[in-house]
Structure formats: structure tokens, C-alpha cells
């Protein structure tokens, strides 16, 4: 057994030396026969035949010959032969692999790693040979569906495995039934321990193997362009897990039959989600539905999934209802408009925490804060998702009893969701980002545009930045010549002003330009680095001309309508003057003029009803207010 061999060996560090031009001749510098190093001498690996082919390479059935003075053994192994990696990046991959190799052997839900080698210039990862995969099982079964108890049983083992990898800081990113291997006890283990994650940042020499960070059918929205729509986080794996469970329950791969480009359009652009089959235990349905939240921060973590699956494992469906469910209340799908219960349960309050009323992330309207600042002095019950806490607020005699979901923890003046600026200069990524988590010791994770994963560092390196909201009007800063993304110009050549329609978890702004008239499929939605733009409001525009220009930004029809209206008014005025002069000549009374005046008012009011509201407002009275912050 490979396990017994490994247990007998002592962990030790090792090193590689790559011979230029011939990667097969890779040798360990610090290695003794009894050391548990991942390195496998390629001469001891004999590839027999290929058993699988996936986007990251081929899988071969092979034998691994191990011998010493005491033993001489052959193991049947599966060898994942990756697509060729540039030679100067090979060492990088091997180092990353070494970091997780020994730790992975302590994990119960992850496949057993034999080691790593290089054959014909390709990285080969040797893994214990298993009976097959859940994917194979789905392919073999008539109808392809697995029974719910099996799905829950496999799901629990897999969630444990993914959770274990997360605890090592590894993202799997390639969660799918063909990567769920089944062991001798019919338990599923994770067969891909994060190969896309290890390959991240490593270019491939052959452009035919355009590796994405995963397999399209199972990829979360942020996984397609992590630097732009990211970051990728533990919750990215949650999406892949949800897709896999849906496939196990239905026998149908999510987005089956669609090309990668079509899946991108569905998942990323149209924000579509895989369909969840009906009739599941409520906790399972709820958690799987949470897996498909577009904003990764609203998705559950593996611990939430594990809890939902375990609590439903003994449930039986009888007479139209589920019986045998654990009594704990199924968390509501969404608490309020903006935050899911999964989001809220990621940060539980403790006595002594400084808190304030939670702000809605997408609202630019000023809000009344029940608690501008307070201290948690008591927990009414375990501060789970729907608990209450007692908060002492300055100048209020008795502590207030407040629902935890309406509060956010403030540490060193910062809270999750705050916009922050990195104080030190960087050109690797945007300087402005959004806080994803902040620990009580000040360690903070921030999503920055330009980074594939979360930035991690101390809050002392950050300062609070002006927030952006959906609905804000923005334009490029006047002193900026080369924005990070393409930005449209107005007819006169100046930068156009647009309106934020979406904000990605890394602060990347999606900006639409309602003031631009576009033809056919011409894009009218652009991305923006929050550090490149500034907010524009009606009030801050100088002068009447400036304010009028802002109205034009609301809708491209503002200009033709204004011209039409001006013409109309001019004609009316001309007629009015003509009539007045005629009336003067005929010595008409004032009554008639007043009647014309009223008629014009009525006409004007009628016109206002068919103008877009902002145009109507500015032309006939109130200025637009939508951008007031
Ligand atoms: N360790 C293993 N033991 C037994 N069979 C395996 C093992 N690893 C992979 N396989 C088999 O190979 C098949 C394909 O695996 P492979 O990982 O190449 O495909 P994939 O998961 O679609 O691709 P990728 O992981 O590159 O995205 C699996 O469904 C399984 O049948």
C-alpha cells in the first residue's frame, strides 16, 4: 500500500535542478531513499494506456515501481500528464506542488498523491488508481441520475475534501463529476487538488491549449476573467460544486451542448443559472440555489453546504412532505434585498465588537443609521444568522436589542463592503478596491481589479475611499490619458459620461452610456477602473451649459428633443408675436392674449408628458435628482 510506505517515511524538504533542453533529466539534489519527496524518477513510471482526456491534459493508467533494500513494489497509478509548460515555469509549478504534496496526504476527502515527475517534457502527476469517477457512474447509469441519498453521501465527502483544500489555501477550480473519484468504500474524493490553481500565471507554449481556469460548464462568472470580474475565492468552488450536484441529480451536464462562448454569454453576460430540479429537501434546494448567486460574496461556503447536506441525509419524502429533517430553521434565501444569509453568516458578532448599522451596498441614497456606532455588550443567543444582540450606543441609557443582520462589524474604522485605497503605489492592479473580510486583528482581504485572487494584508495599509454606487454617473478623470479600459468619446472628442450599471466584487465598474446613440451591435457598456473615474452629479456641473450637458448624458434622445422643443417654442413664440402685433393693430382686448397664454401652457405641459423625465424636469422645472449621493 502506498499509504503504508508514505507513513514509514519522514517528511523532508527537497529541491529540483532542471537540465536545460532536456526536462526528462530532472534530479533531486537533497533526497535520500527514505524521504517522502513528491519527486518520482521517470524511469520508475511506466505508462500503459490512456484512460481519459480533459482540458488540462491526459490521464494514463501506469505502474510505479518503488524499491529499496527492504521492499520492491509496483503500484497501479493514474498519471495526469499536463499539457507542456514553458521550461522556465516548470520549477514554479513543481514548487507549488511541493507545498501541498505532504499536507494533501493528511486529507481524507482528497485523492492520494503518489508524486510528480516529468516525462517527455510534460509534468506528470501520479495519483492512486481508483475504481472510477462519479462522472463514469453517471455515464453508465440509465438516465444518468444518481439517487438523492447517494448524491448527499458523495456530496458530504466532497464538501469535506474541498473544505480541506481550502484550509491549505488551495482553490480547486475544476470541480466536476469526472474529477470525483470513488474509493473502495464507495466514498467520493476530490481527484483534482487544484491543478488550474497551480497553473495560474503559468503560460503555455502551445496556443492550441488555451487553458481556462476550469471547465466551462462548471465555471463561475468570475472564473472567466478573474482579473476583471474576480477575484476568484473559495466561493468560486461553491458554484462548481452546485453545478456538479445538479448534474448528479439530473444526469445532465449544466449548459449541455453549448460552446464555451455560448456558456460565457449565458453565465457571465446574461447572468443565467443552471436549473435546479424540484422536490429536494428545502435545506439542500436552498443551499444549491445559493451556489448560483452571481455575486460570489452571496454564495455559501463549504461549511454551509456540509451542514445542509448532513441535516437532510436522513430525510424521507412521504405524503407530499419531507420528514426526518433536522429541526433547525432553513435560512431564508435572501435577507433583505442585498445580502444573502450566506453572506451574513460569514462574520458572526462577538461581545466587544464595534458595530454600526449595515449599509445597503447598491444604494446611493442617504440612509438613517439606527446605530452610527455602538459596542456589542450581549448576545441574546448564539449569534447565528437570525440572532439578536444587545448594543450599547453612546448617549442611550439602555442597550438596544438589534437583529444581527442589520449590523456590520467595524474594525480599525473599516467594515466588509467598504471601498478602500491601497496607500502604497502599485501598478500591478487598481489602487481602489472593496473589502471582502476583515479580522479582528486587522488582517484584511480586499478585491482589487487586476488581481486574480484577493489581496491580503493589514488594514493599516489601507485608507477609506469614496464609494461608488449603481446609478452614479462617472467620467474619466481630466488628467488621465490612458485609461485601463477603452472609454467612449463624445462627438467633440471629449470623454463621454456614463452611468454605473453594475459593480463587480473587485470594484470593477460596468458603465453604460445612455447618452450615446449606438448603431446595431455596437457596444454601449464599458468597463472602468474605479481609480480612473470620478463621480459627476447635476449639482457639481458648473453653469447652465454644463447642467444641460449632464441632461444629455441621461438619454441620447435629450438633444433631438431639446432641439425639437426649441423649434416648437420658437414657432409658437413667432405665431404669438405675430398675433399680438396683429391684435395690436386691430386694437384687440387683453382677454384674448391671456387665453393664448393659457393654451401655450397647456401645450407645454402636454409636451412634457412625452419627454423623458429628466429632460422634462429640467426643461419644465425641477432638476434631475437621481445622482444625489
Ligand atoms: N486517479 C484515477 N483513478 C482512476 N480513474 C481516473 C483517475 N483519474 C482520472 N480517471 C479517469 O479519467 C477520466 C477523465 O479524467 P480527466 O481528469 O482526464 O478528465 P477531466 O476530469 O474531464 O479533465 P480535467 O481534469 O483535465 O479537466 C475520469 O472520468 C476517470 O474515469
In words, what does this structure look like?
With 629 residues, the protein is an alpha+beta fold. It contains 16 helices and 31 strands. Strands 5-6-7-9-8 form a 5-stranded antiparallel sheet, with helices on one face. The chain has a 5-stranded antiparallel sheet with strand order 20-19-18-17-21, with no helix packed on it. A 5-stranded antiparallel sheet has the order 25-24-23-22-26, with no helix packed on it. Helix 4 packs antiparallel against helix 11, helix 14 runs antiparallel to helix 15 and helix 15 runs antiparallel to helix 16. 37% of the residues are buried. The N terminus and C terminus are likely disordered. The chain binds adenosine-5'-triphosphate (ATP). The site of adenosine-5'-triphosphate has 24 residues, from strand 5, strand 6, strand 10 and helix 3.
Output the keywords:
629 residues, alpha+beta, five-stranded antiparallel β-sheet, 30% helix, disordered N terminus, disordered C terminus, binds adenosine-5'-triphosphate
